[in-house]
Amino acid sequence: MSSLPLAGKVALITGASKGIGAATALELSSLGAKVVINYSSDAAPAEALVSKIGADSAFAVKANAGDLKDIERLVKETVDKWGQIDILIPNAGVLAMKDLESTSEADWDATMEVNVKGPFFLCQKAVPHMPPGSHIILLSTSLCNLSSVTPTYLLYVTSKGAIEQMTRVLAKDVGRKGITVNAIAPGPTGTELFLKGKSDELVKTMAGWNPFGRLGTPEDIAMAIGFLAGGKSAWINGQILRANGGMTVG
């Protein structure tokens, strides 16, 4: 029998073909978990990740993480394959740079569909298949705790504020079933999604906000998620872990 801490566990990760999601899939598989790699459109990186991990421990599922029918199918395919879900990570997200004036109804709907509706209903559909001792790990942002946040993050941070409240109350709800709920709130992290549209000067400025003088890496965040996904975090519930190297404190 494997001595790896997550041996025998099944992890379902949305938005897992790139960035933080991909790093998390690799981290959890290195700890012994079987991983379901959800992606929305581009199969190539998802299949490459499955090949890297091994087809006996990973498989990819194309699904829109903000669509209820796709969410139901994603959960069903996971349970049909491996019987249960022990670690649920609704990682898929969109980052629309919109202030109040520039936000359209379509912008609002698209952001809330993926960043809020998707995680909410993924939890609803997955929980019946999650045994006691399971973990839900949601994704927020340290921008929710940053005084110098700029107006163009208004729509994005609004969606992540909903995630933080979801974390607090869902922990009370499914805690009765022996399931913990926490959220990781990364600081600026060098992912494709984060870097898109940002000048080198802006990226350097944002790195300077951190006492370490750098951006986070997807692996930094994945290791924090790995901790919350394991048995050593069993008494941590309803918390927001701001994984940002000290960019924000308190």
From TrEMBL:
Pfam family, one: adh_short_C2
Keyword Secreted: no
Positions of the Ketoreductase domain: 9-187
GO terms, molecular function: oxidoreductase activity, acting on CH-OH group of donors
The keyword Oxidoreductase belongs to this UniProt entry's keyword annotation: yes
Keywords of the record: NADP, Oxidoreductase
Domain of life: Eukaryota
InterPro entries attached to this UniProt entry: KR_dom (IPR057326), NAD(P)-bd_dom_sf (IPR036291), Sc_DH/Rdtase_CS (IPR020904), SDR_fam (IPR002347)
Similarity comment text for this entry: Belongs to the short-chain dehydrogenases/reductases (SDR) family.
Protein's UniProt name: NAD(P)-binding protein
